[in-house]
């Protein structure tokens, strides 16, 4: 049994597989199963008091990244380093898409264009305790791509339902898996950025899993012993989330064939944390190809 598998409960594997969950990274603000931000009553009241004229509000930071969750009037933007920022937007927010090599030919858009997965650059102002978008810029080509993905959601749900029913009918003991392969992707100290080699290894792993019938992928993040437990737990989860996002967005792996990712902090080290080389081995994400024994016939 591979490192980390023994630490994952039977119930987690059962729920993750039967539900065939979409990527489950923890959000800075609670989200529902569709990735929409859950807005509290207090936040609704704050949103109602946001100034219509944002030009008079103090300037806030410029936020760049990908929309990773949203609600009717809030969106969460995740930056390349994993930082997540929740930003409110109002009827006064300018939402514009550019086209062409020089960003020419801009057109105004409505809030409906702000879909999960869309790369954006957001100019913000500070209104009370809220960051509010005064301007949201995006590229027309990115918008078209994200729209194509979202338009295929219905087909994805149909495939997910069929896969779920197949598993329910064919697997009696779904928590028993054969590990068909494990790829370890390594990280720099305190970082969650993927290296060029790591990216290539992830797509190679996804390709290998694609060749296996009924294969699922389980992603488990780890750290070395540097830092305290709370920091390392968050870092291991961030690394696992980064790997999941890359496999799905860049390697074509379907979300419903991904078991819920897990962060294991500094548990189950591959080598001693007393040496630099040992720590380097422990700063990893293990990408495991699993096939249920009920389907594998072994």
Describe the structure.
The protein is built from 8 helices and 11 strands. The protein is of the alpha+beta class and 298 residues long. The chain folds into 2 domains: 5-25 and 165-296, OmpA-like domain (60s Ribosomal Protein L30, Chain: A), CATH 3.30.1330; 41-149, Copper binding periplasmic protein CusF (OB fold (Dihydrolipoamide Acetyltransferase, E2P), Beta Barrel). Strands 3-2-1-6-7-4-5 form a 7-stranded mixed β-sheet. Helix 5 (196-210) crosses helix 6 (229-250). It starts with 9 loop residues before the first helix and ends with a helix.
What's the topology here?
Layout: H1 10-19, H2 41-48, E1 59-70, E2 74-78, E3 84-88, E4 94-99, E5 104-108, E6 119-127, E7 130-139, H3 140-151, H4 153-170, E8 177-186, H5 196-210, E9 216-221, H6 229-250, E10 262-263, H7 276-282, E11 284-292, H8 293-296
Parallel strand pairs: 4-7, 9-10
Antiparallel strand pairs: 1-2, 1-6, 2-3, 4-5, 6-7, 8-11, 9-11
In short:
The chain has two domains: 5-25 and 165-296, 60s Ribosomal Protein L30, Chain: A, CATH 3.30.1330.60; 41-149, Copper binding periplasmic protein CusF (OB fold (Dihydrolipoamide Acetyltransferase, E2P), Beta Barrel). Helices cover 32% and strands 27% of the residues. The chain has helices at residues 10-19, 41-48, 140-151, 153-170, 196-210, 229-250, 276-282, 293-296; strands at residues 59-70, 74-78, 84-88, 94-99, 104-108, 119-127, 130-139, 177-186, 216-221, 262-263, 284-292.
């Amino acid at each position: 049994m591979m490192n980390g598998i023994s630490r994952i409960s039977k119930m987690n594997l059962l729920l993750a597989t039967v539900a065939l969950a979409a990527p489950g990274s923890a959000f800075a603000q609670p989200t529902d199963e569709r990735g929409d931000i859950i807005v509290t009553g207090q936040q609704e009241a704050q949103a109602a008091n946001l100034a219509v004229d944002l030009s008079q509000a103090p300037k806030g930071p410029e936020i760049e990244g990908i929309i990773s969750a949203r609600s009717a009037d809030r969106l969460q933007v995740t930056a390349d380093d994993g930082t997540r920022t929740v930003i409110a937007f109002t009827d006064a927010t300018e939402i514009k898409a550019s086209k062409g090599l020089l960003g020419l030919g801009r057109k105004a858009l409505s809030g409906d264009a702000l879909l999960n997965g869309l790369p954006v650059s957001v100019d913000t102002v500070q209104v009370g305790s809220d960051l509010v978008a005064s301007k949201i810029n995006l590229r027309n080509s990115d918008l078209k791509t994200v729209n194509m993905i979202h338009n295929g959601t219905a087909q994805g749900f149909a495939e997910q339902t069929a896969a779920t029913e197949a598993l329910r009918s064919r697997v009696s003991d779904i928590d028993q898996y054969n590990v068909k392969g494990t790829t370890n992707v390594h990280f720099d100290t305190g970082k969650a950025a993927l290296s060029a080699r790591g990216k290539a290894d992830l797509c190679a792993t996804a390709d290998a899993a694609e060749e296996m019938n009924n294969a699922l992928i389980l992603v488990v993040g780890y750290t070395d012993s540097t830092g305290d437990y709370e920091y390392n737990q968050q870092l291991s989860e961030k690394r696992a989330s980064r790997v999941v996002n890359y496999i799905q967005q860049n390697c074509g792996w379907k979300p419903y064939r991904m078991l819920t990712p897990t962060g294991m902090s500094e548990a189950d080290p591959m080598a001693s944390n007393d040496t630099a080389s040992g720590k380097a081995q422990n700063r990893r994400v293990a990408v495991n190809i699993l096939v249920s024994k009920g389907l594998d016939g072994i």
